[in-house]
Amino acid sequence: MTEDAGDYSVPIKLDTLQNSAVTSVSVPLAKGVLHELTASQLLANGAPIPCGAKALTNWPDGSIKWLHLTFAVPKHLTGDLIFRVAKAKQSETANAPESLSYISNDSHTTVTHSLYRFTLTHADGSFSIAPGTADDANKVIRGCLNLHDAHSRLGAVSSCQVSIDHTQSLLDGAIYALSVQVDMTYALVDDDTVSNITSTSVFLFTSAHEAIKLDVTLHNANAAVHSGGSWDLGDANSFYFSALTLAMKGDNASTFSYRTEQDSPWQTHLTEAATDTSNVSIQQFSSGGENWLSPVHVDHRNTLPFSVNGYQVDKEGEVITSGQRATPLVSWADKVSVTIENFWQKFPTSINMTPNEMLISFFPAQKNHLHELQGGEKSTHSVWLSTNDKPDSLDELTSSSKGILFCGEYLHSEIPLYTECQNAHSTIQDLINNGLHSQNNFFEKREKLDEYGWRNFGDIYADHETAEHQDDSIFVSHYNNQYDPIYGFLRQFILSNDQQWFTLADDLAKHVMDIDIYHTKQDKDEYNGGLFWHTDHYLQAFTSSHRSYSKHQGIGAYQDHAGGGGPGGQHCYTSGLALYYILTGNPNAKEAVQTLTQWITYVYEGGNTCLELLLALKNRHVLGLKNHFTGQYPLDRGTANYINALLDSYVITSERASLQRVEHVIQHTIHPNEDVTLRHLSNVEETWFYTVFLQSLVRYLDIKSVNKEFDDAFYYARDGLLCFAQWMLEHEYMYLDKPEILEYPNDTWTAQDLRKAHVLSAAYFYGNKHDHTLLQKAEYFENEVSARLEQSDTKTYTRIMVLLMQNDGPTSHFKHAVLPSEFNARKTDWVAPAYAKGTNVTRIVKAFVKRMLALSISNEVNWLKKRLG
Questions:
Q1: Are 384 and 339 in contact (CB under 8 A)?
Q2: Which contiguous run of DSSP H or E holds residue 329?
Q3: Rounded Cα–Cα distance for residues 644 and 624 (Å)
Q4: Which alpha helices (H) appear in 407-484, and where do they start and end?
Q5: What is the pTM of this model?
Q6: Helix, strand or coil, per DSSP, at residue 446
Q7: Would you tell me how many other CB atoms lie within 10 Å of the CB of residue 578?
């Protein structure tokens, strides 16, 4: 960032981008720098270029905190692009592309582009696309989304809601991009009642090109039954359906062409007459990979629902060609081009073409097989439509890259990434790079498990769970974002500008948002909106898909293993989703962070029923649960996850209440003057995750420090950190130095040791860099982790790799970071904690009196019904 003569400038790295590719980048801005978008511009070769801009988050004073830019990279670009806060002079303004416009009323929305006119019917979500602006009925393409139930009957739309959002152009304030969202609810055909099955279609338009992107999400909002704590496919509240298709029709018979793979030749069908009914279909049945018959694909019957490897092209029912992995592109109906993103990765999919009609099937009809959408599950597919007479242009749009900033620009972004002092050639970085360059890299892991298909694609193979697997069969275990690989992948992308890291993050984030989060409000509140655990340790997934627990798994797999359960606060990771939202502007990621925050808040704070309080009384001494009578939170990773979720919500919303809640949680978990020995932290199996809590506390301090808020809450947390760090300095060691006290002494423990370096180096920094032994101990842990894992045969296991990505960077950062000011000296006379005051009887009586005063019989009954059902 540079400031000169009133200008505020940020350079943007475009090292890997192709000229003319559409790309995007997010820019963090200091408080007070930018209030109006039109007071900024994007410069290429010193001149402003067309650019869409959207404020993602704002500072409390209303100025923009994070700004998302979308633009086409100009040809003949020399050097970096420059984002500048300084209103453009009239003579500097470039010629903007012809802007979008729209008109919307109660019944229709019409979007006008220089190359087409799009009209949406609000009653049922159907639409039409007419090339140009002339009212030429012969060239109009009509489309609609069709959902067919288990009996192949067309689902009726019971309600349809339309909402519109736009992105402003920096050049002239006009519309640069536009999104039109269509939310539809379907009625059950049998009794015409409204169901909990919904679809969301988001049409994305931009003035930068003529293509329209359509994202279609199908959602089963019912709660799963999950009998006995198992979450297997075949649940009574799953939604079974035969097909979900986008049907497009033209009024006149036309020639159509298609290409099955990017390097394959175009095939053209010449329409001979208006009555020509020739039919060509391209269908992806399975992944086409070496392990296409992997048990990861079993249905509720525990059998594979397909028998064809890869894809087939049929003409009039006869197979005319086949292959492994199709990436089809179709030109149809007077040069309307169509392609589906991740066509083969999200199988089964198909495109069916006739001279008059095209069916784009996100879930194609299949003989003797129904698709299953579990309760609380979503599935999203994306399709591109273009009126360009060069269909190959869609290749560029579907593979466009992202830009990033130089690492130092993120230093004061309120998201501590610890990137500015990173050593690109450290041993830990070399270990992390195995994620892209080793024989067991993350892309290769997909192939080993065949982590493909619409429900699986994007998730990571939990291959560390195969350590005790005895034969060569495929062991199915899903990772479900444990320790936040979304964050780790994005941090590596920022460090390296290698688009492969972003691809991994993008695929995983979309998977987590659809599949791993429990999208329902009809289950128990401690489950609603929660994140499903990874597949249960040391056990195969069987028919549980990505929902942890299967009736086929049994019990007793490890210490205290009972089998069964549901989402829990010990497994909640939001920082990667928050960073993904900030880097991409994807509103679903923001919604996911807020959903998970609301869920984990309930997990720890509970509701307002007396029955719930009775259960809390029974469980008040259970490890991992908040004591609702003393108000004290457990010193563990669940509380850390709660703090991180609140901090992430604060980062993306700037709502002060989230930060205040964090301060409450910290002050009701630890005390700055406590006797740490009473925590019995030497019992590693029961207490190791205290370091995770301290890391979340450090993150709170980092955010407060960026905002220069050095108040009592800051120093309470800071002194708590120093209190525990002093104990760590004297007592902590590498976990595997005492393997006899561990149930499973493996190198996951070595990777976890890196957390200690984070905590100790932060204590060194926030202690004014006075105690160098803290930094030395931090560097000891970092060096030992590096040396030991470098020699480990399991160094490329998923969990180890993710832990390294999550926890690398702080030691170097805190060693070299400049103190914002001299911090206050540590206090030794903090007031006794609230959780230590009063007697047990007094606390219990007060809690129940408070609940009784707000008693609601209906709430009590509802709470009980959801737990007895």
A1: yes
A2: strand 329-332
A3: 17
A4: 427-437, 442-449
A5: 0.96
A6: helix
A7: 28
Asked if 520 and 221 count as a contact pair (C-beta separation under 8 A), the reply is yes
Strands annotated E in 29-125: 40-44, 47-48, 52-58, 64-72, 81-85, 101-104, 108-113, 116-121
- Listed in sequence order, the residues at least 6 apart from 434 whose beta carbon sits closer than 8 Å to its beta carbon are 440, 441, 795, 796, 801
Q: Which residues of 179-189 are buried (b: 16+ CB within 10 A; e: fewer)?
A: bbbbbbbbbeb
Question: Which CATH code fits 101-398?
Answer: 2.70.98
Residue 75 banded pLDDT, cuts 50, 70, 90: confident
Q: What's phi and psi for 216, nearest 5 deg?
A: -120, 125
Alpha-carbon distance of 458 to 504, in angstroms, equals: 7
**What is the per-residue pLDDT across 556-615, written as a single tens digit (0 to 9) for each?**
777 777 788 999 999 999 999 999 999 999 999 999 999 999 999 999 999 989 999 999
Q: Kindly tell me the burial class for residue 43, based on how many C-beta atoms sit within 10 Å of its own C-beta (0-12, 13-18, 19 or more).
A: buried
- For 646-664, write each residue's pLDDT tens digit: 999 999 999 999 999 999 9
Task: Assess contact for 83 and 69: CB atoms under 8 A.
Answer: yes
Domain ranges of the chain: 2-92, 101-398
CA proximity to 776, closest of 804, 751, 757, 752: 757
Give backbone dihedrals phi and psi of 71, rounded to 5 degrees, phi first.
-165, 160
DSSP characters for 125-179?
--EEEEESSS--GGG-EEEEEEEEETTSPBPEEEEEEEEEEEEEETTTSSEEEEE
Average pLDDT over residues 431-454: 98
Whether 511 and 457 have beta carbons less than 8 Å apart is answered as yes
Rounded Cα distance between 123 and 140, Å, is 19
